Amino acid sequence: MSLAVDNLRVYYRTLHGDVHALDGVTFAIADGEIMGVAGESGCGKTTLGKSLIRLDGRMRYVEGDVSLDGDRLPVWDDAAMNRFRFAKISIVPQYSMSALNPIRKIGRMTFELLESRGVPGDEVRPELLRRLQLVGLTPDVLGMYPIELSGGMKQRVVLVISTLLDPSLLIADEVTSALDVASQRAVSEMLVEFRDRGFVRSAMVITHDLAVLYQVADTILVMYAGKLAEKAPAETIVHEPRHPYTQMLLASLPEVGVRYETTRLEGIRGRPPSLLEPPSGCRFRDRCPLASAVCEQEPPFVQIAPRHHVACWKAG
Amino acid sequence: MNRYLARKIVLYLLTFWVAVTIDWAIPRLMPGDPIQGLISRLQTDPTGAEELHGYFTRSFGLDQPLWKQYLNFWAGLVHGDLGPSIAYIGSSVSELIWAAVPYTLALLVPAIVLSYIAGNRVGALAARRKWLDSSALPVSYLLTATPYMWLALVLVYVLSFRLGLFPVSGAYDFSLQPAWTWEFARSFLSHWFLPFLTLFLVSFGGWAIGMRNLIIYELEADYASYLQALGAPSRLIRKYAYGNAVLPQMTGLALALGVIVGGALVTEIVFGYPGVGSLTIAAIQNRDYFLLQGIFFFIIVGVLLANFLVDIAYVFVDPRTRTGIQGS
Amino acid sequence: MTTLEQSTELAAADAAEHVLPPRRRRNETLYFAFRNRKLVVGLSVVLFFLVLAVVGPWLTSASPFEFGYPLGESPSTAHWLGTTAPGQDVFSQFVHGLRASFLVGAVSACVASVIAMAVGFTAGYRGGAVDEALTMVTNVVLVIPTIAVLIIVAAYLHVGSLLWEAVLIGATSWPWAARSIRAQTFSLAAREFVSLARLSGRRGRQIVIHEIAPNMSSYLFLVFILLFGGSILIAATLDFLGLGPSQVMSLGLMLNIAVSASALQLGMWWWFIPPGLAITAIVGGLYVTNVGLDEVFNPRLRDR
Predict the structure, then answer these.
(1) Alpha-carbon distance C142 to A238, whole Å?
(2) B contacts of A106 (beta carbons < 8 Å)
(3) Considering only CA atoms, which of B123, B141, B144 is closest in space to residue B132?
(4) Which of A1, A51, A217, C97 has a CA between 20 and 30 Å from the CA of residue B217?
């Protein structure tokens, strides 16, 4: 088992109280699996990604167990997490375009980073060059400053650097969001290739774009308002979704070839609930067409078929 | 790089032209007759005064049409001729200024360099250590809010007049002549120290505050977050943050020059230090307009040159200027 | 001082998107305002001297230039801050000097703010050639050392009143503010609400006044405070050089006269310590208030 998360709760501290951004999620990612995490803004997917590698100042770990390859990850302890970062768990952040020090040549920064983590530059250099070539960059890139590269190039550089030590788990946070469609495809394909070649053992791809996940992910995890809604193989999620939210999410995607006169674009009415004082029961209740009295009880995230979990009373 | 420096050179040349024009124009806007003022200082009899008036008017070119005066002004500058002094009759303005400049530079250069280095170090440290932040920062705010001449007054009053630790005025002991001797050096240093300290302290405050804020800002930048996510030690992150924070500080150096030059002027006055500052007050009190114009010209040239030097240094520090893409 | 300006600029450039409704936001701002120690301390100091400046002249019967008092006496119940060497009341000079400082600071900051806004908004909103030209002008004025220009101008065109002194100082200290305002305007002009305003037919100047400026209001206020403090310092320097209005008592003028009257040698600390101390306190208070306000306006700075 690559990653196992058990009842993870991470809140954000604000003046008005704690925002329950991640409110008890349990799931696992197997070796070699690419799991996509989808959901609208504020559902907690980015919090999930961040909390696995580094809590920022506002985040507060409440409870939950995380283990990677059998080792317990002390996500609450910034210093203790350090030995896992980069080597065992790594991240391609949302801000990859600005993740590189503007006044350092890329090669120099990379080697300084490696040295500081106890990895001699010479050992890794040949592999670094090989991987750069793999993603379509020349070795010249190492002698350039970030400002000399395009956005897509910087994204690829960060992908290579982040995966240089062959982490067990790579978290890719909205890596395609800022790109055009062609680049999106290129980066998605790279992610899969990196997994196939064993550069990363498993990956968690966080995005709001279900279409990308369909191409890239083996399993898809749909989140809503800090909780898990559904988890299933990508095919199943897209063709046989059981959670009403997933169904409506898919229905709201525009299809190529369909015109407005024949089929209207359906959105999902309403907005996600405030996570400052989350409502009791199922959080999707207010927007769900299937909601009834039983939904006042919070549905557990249960398995309804092999590798298919749903949190909904109506899906069983 | 060439584009960056070329733009700067154009700016400085333009500024120089504007400044010189101001230098030339302002006196001509002054109400009253400058020659009359000059004559009255010389105290000659009325007929002699009238002749002198005509003589001076002609020799200063004030009877020429304005545009010609303007060109003559430039011609004079090119030849290094800034006119005669009225306050110190017999000396030319350039002579006086050249004699005073070394003293002012002796104060300014160490003060700027040391306060910049020390201020940056302390500011960067304060960004990391809470105890230093709570103590150094309020002090820095006070220092930067202190008027130079008042700090000079306080220092000279307490340390020289009351405690007798330092001499009260001058650049060196009256009985000595400038020479390469230990005695002179010691005397020079003891006279130099307090004015230097004044300039140093006030400027230090500004740098410390600026650096501290910049470091905090940089530590929250994306590249810092990325490095932290990859487990890099804070040592490395701080190093990068510092390198990035230095850039706006350098730009700030160019701007701060104007302020510290003003500070040097008034500090010298308090300490009777024979630099450009003392020359300025003498010029003001004696209505020596040629001297004032000359001093203004010198300050402009000095500041522009210093700015340009900082710009050149900046090119080496910020790689973005070298890649042909405009930095901020 | 310029580094202060830079850091304020940087912090304000990340001004958070306001998520809460306006009334709640205002209350939250006030809540933070009162809890922020820097703001409270800084403002208190400034207000103390302001009150002293307003009320002080009524507390004393002496006029600042009036002679006839005992020569060079240390503070006593009759003369709270003692007398000067030639026999004037120091307290009277002090409070009138405070008035002068606040007046010059305020007027100068207004003048500089107006110019900076005009230049900054125009350059930031219009862009292109207009921006290039204005930026060049700004840079030229920026590079020329203020004090040198002020000396030249003040020496020739005798500054007769505080008003002129303030206008003069304001006219030379706007460039750094113009640059910051320009930068902010750039980023704001690219936002959707401006495009919306443009689409609905609003003209440029209206857009700037009604859409852009209000969104920068907190930042503009911070700029004003810094200009205020800076102007007081510059005015004090000018006055010290004898280039300020000679008929008006100012703190810098007090220092000037004290030095030439050998107050140092005569040990008359009550004459030359208070004026500079007041300037340091007021300007320091303004700077600290500025930092405090910055923290109140920008939540990101608060957690430190």
Answers:
(1) 61
(2) none
(3) B123
(4) A51
